[in-house]
């Protein structure tokens, strides 16, 4: 039945759509263990015996024996034929049904041959890694911390400098060899695409090798070359390590996405089995769709540098349409020019765990990004920031969830962008992003030496977010009175700084025609004057 359609399309539907999502539209499901359970829609029952496995892509009823996949569920539950079901599911996935054409038996045979060739090529590469020609490759991979078991599990190999594939698979038709991307045709006949490369096989979801990623060993760029897209390999739809990670993703109820393949393998082998990596740097929505089919909890782990930040913002934009109210998407950053592989090697598994555990939730990441990218103390900056946020939030498909996010951001905007509006009362609210090291050190000294001052100025001191662990200060000598003076003058200074900022903002508003702002400016000027007088008398006080 499914032979009528191009298998790739039904596969793509299965990949794009969550079986649990589709069945949930008709049958309420509850998660128990790895599977979901509900009352069977195909026979009458009061206690659930209908189980759905997202992982395997199948449902099964233990009451009446009905079972099948996403396509047969749609056919049976809606009483429609295969073609209609496919059309309906394609609409749901936002895909266009390709032309209705029978699957060519010659193509089936071609695909089978393809997989046999790539598998044999992998065997050959594996063998070469342990021969003399591959000594430098083996040395490199061992230096990167790969054990023999890891080399075996990931089927890592070495493609020598000579044309080993075109030279060995002489019985295969040249067109067939070329179709695997391993061999190309040149002016002097066939030649190997991968030469003098450390070879990482790329597996499809069925654990078949469909392509390779080759790392250069002589320092030449690019560092990695991948098989160019073939009939069975689409770079944008393939996520490295997923075949190994799938079970762990279900067990951990999350996936981790890192930037590099070696990172992914090292993470998988050091307790983070749920780790995958895109091939090359760009993440696509197909990658996210594959991960979200397992569950919608993803931790992205990027470099802490500017490029990593940029990649994270991009990933955020791609993942937003997949968000549901039960998703947990976070962003972790590895700083200091390191990658997860370095962290695991130099600082250990616990350090990596810390980085993963302290990842920033998407909603905070998006908010921080907005505030970093635009100057929200000016009306123009706020307007740009609003547009950016709005564009992002609109990507969220789940309407109720989107509304909640909008409300959350509205309250943050009010509290953080328009603070002065609330400050009609006498107690100044001071929000300090950071204080310099010397101030911090002095404050730690004061707090440790004069606990009575903590009681008096506790609220202000705690608003400063002082890091008490990182600083010790023995070389200071301040008496109680000077210490108090220090705190009060700091408080006044920060208050004045804040008033001045508010004034700048009010001037902008007055310039754009806000009449109310003008009277506010007068009030603020007066407040600044009073605060300055207080500060002066404090400084002159003996
Ligand atoms: Zn049943």
Task: Present the secondary structure layout.
Layout lengths: L6 H10 L2 H6 L5 E3 L2 E4 L11 E4 L4 E4 L5 E2 L1 H9 L3 H12 L11 H25 L5 H9 L4 H6 L3 E3 L4 H5 L5 H6 L3 E4 L2 E4 L4 E7 L5 E8 L7 E3 L12 E2 L1 H11 L2 E3 L3 H9 L5 E4 L6 H10 L2 E7 L2 H14 L8 E7 L5 H7 L2 H9 L2 E2 H12 L5 H15 L5 H19 L1 H4 L14 H13 L1 H13 L16 H32 L3 H26 L2
Parallel strand pairs: 13-14, 13-15, 15-16
Antiparallel strand pairs: 1-2, 2-3, 3-4, 4-5, 6-9, 7-8, 9-10, 10-11, 12-14, 16-17
The structure holds zinc ion.
Provide the descriptors you would attach to this structure in a database record.
single chain, 542 residues, alpha+beta, 52% helix, globular, binds zinc ion
Please describe what this structure looks like.
With 542 residues, the protein is an alpha+beta fold. The protein has 23 helices and 17 strands. The protein has helices at residues 7-16, 19-24, 70-78, 82-93, 105-129, 135-143, 148-153, 164-168, 174-179, 242-252, 261-269, 285-294, 306-319, 340-346, 349-357, 362-373, 379-393, 399-417, 419-422, 437-449, 451-463, 480-511, 515-540, and strands spanning 30-32, 35-38, 50-53, 58-61, 67-68, 157-159, 183-186, 189-192, 197-203, 209-216, 224-226, 239-240, 255-257, 275-278, 297-303, 328-334, 360-361. The strands form four sheets. The chain has a six-stranded mixed β-sheet with strand order 12-14-13-15-16-17, sandwiched between helices. A five-stranded antiparallel β-sheet has the order 1-2-3-4-5. Strands 6-9-10-11 form a four-stranded antiparallel β-sheet. Helix 14 (340-346) crosses helix 15 (349-357) and helix 20 (437-449) runs antiparallel to helix 21. The longest helix has 32 residues, at 480-511. The chain binds zinc ion. Zinc ion binds at residues 40, 42-43, 50, 61, 63-64, 66.
């Amino acid at each position: 039945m499914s032979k009528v359609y191009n298998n790739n399309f039904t596969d793509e539907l299965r990949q794009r759509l969550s079986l649990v999502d589709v069945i949930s539209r008709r049958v309420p499901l509850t998660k128990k263990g790895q599977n979901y359970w509900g009352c069977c829609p195909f026979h009458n029952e009061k206690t659930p015996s209908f189980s759905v496995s997202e992982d395997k892509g199948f449902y099964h009823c233990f009451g009446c024996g009905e079972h099948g996949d996403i396509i047969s569920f749609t056919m049976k539950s809606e009483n429609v034929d295969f073609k209609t079901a496919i059309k309906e599911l394609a609409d749901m996935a936002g895909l266009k049904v390709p032309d209705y054409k029978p699957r060519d038996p010659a193509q089936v045979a071609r695909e089978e041959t393809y997989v046999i060739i790539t598998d044999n090529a992998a065997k050959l590469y594996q063998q070469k890694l342990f021969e003399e020609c591959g000594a430098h490759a083996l040395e490199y991979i061992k230096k990167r911390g790969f054990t023999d078991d890891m080399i075996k599990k990931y089927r890592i190999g070495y493609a020598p400098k000579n044309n080993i594939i075109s030279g060995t698979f002489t019985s295969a038709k040249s067109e067939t060899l070329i179709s695997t991307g391993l061999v190309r045709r040149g002016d002097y006949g066939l030649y190997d695409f991968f030469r003098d490369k450390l070879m990482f096989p790329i597996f499809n979801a069925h654990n078949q090798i469909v392509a390779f990623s080759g790392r250069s060993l002589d320092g030449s760029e690019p560092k990695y070359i991948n098989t160019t897209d073939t009939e069975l390999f689409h770079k944008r739809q393939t996520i490295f390590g997923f075949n190994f990670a799938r079970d762990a993703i279900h067990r951990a109820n999350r996936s981790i996405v890192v930037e590099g393949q070696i990172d992914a393998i090292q993470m998988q082998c050091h307790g983070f089995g749920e780790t995958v990596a895109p091939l090359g740097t760009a993440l696509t929505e197909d990658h996210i769709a594959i991960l979200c089919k397992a569950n919608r909890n993803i931790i992205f782990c990027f470099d802490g540098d500017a490029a990593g930040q940029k990649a994270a913002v991009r990933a955020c934009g791609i993942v937003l349409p997949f968000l549901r109210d039960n998703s947990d998407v976070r962003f972790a950053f590895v700083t200091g020019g390191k990658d997860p592989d370095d962290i695991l090697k130099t600082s250990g598994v616990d350090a990596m765990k810390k980085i993963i555990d302290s990842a920033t939730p998407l909603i905070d990441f998006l908010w921080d990004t907005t505030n970093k990218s635009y100057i929200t103390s000016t009306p123009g900056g706020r307007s740009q920031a609003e547009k950016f946020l709005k564009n992002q939030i609109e990507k969220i498909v789940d309407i109720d969830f989107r509304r909640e996010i909008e409300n959350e951001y509205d309250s943050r905007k009010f509290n953080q962008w328009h603070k002065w509006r609330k400050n009609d009362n006498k107690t100044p609210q001071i929000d300090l992003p950071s204080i310099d090291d010397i101030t911090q050190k002095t404050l730690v000294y004061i707090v440790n030496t004069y606990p009575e001052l903590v009681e008096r100025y506790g609220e202000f001191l705690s608003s400063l977010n002082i890091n008490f662990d990182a600083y010790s200060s023995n070389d200071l000598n301040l008496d109680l009175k000077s210490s108090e003076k220090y705190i009060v003058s700091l408080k006044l200074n920060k208050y004045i700084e804040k008033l001045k900022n508010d004034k700048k903002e009010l001037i902008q508003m007055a310039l754009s025609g806000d009449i109310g702002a003008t009277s506010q400016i007068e009030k603020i000027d007066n407040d600044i004057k009073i605060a300055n007088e207080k500060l002066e008398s404090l400084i002159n006080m003996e």
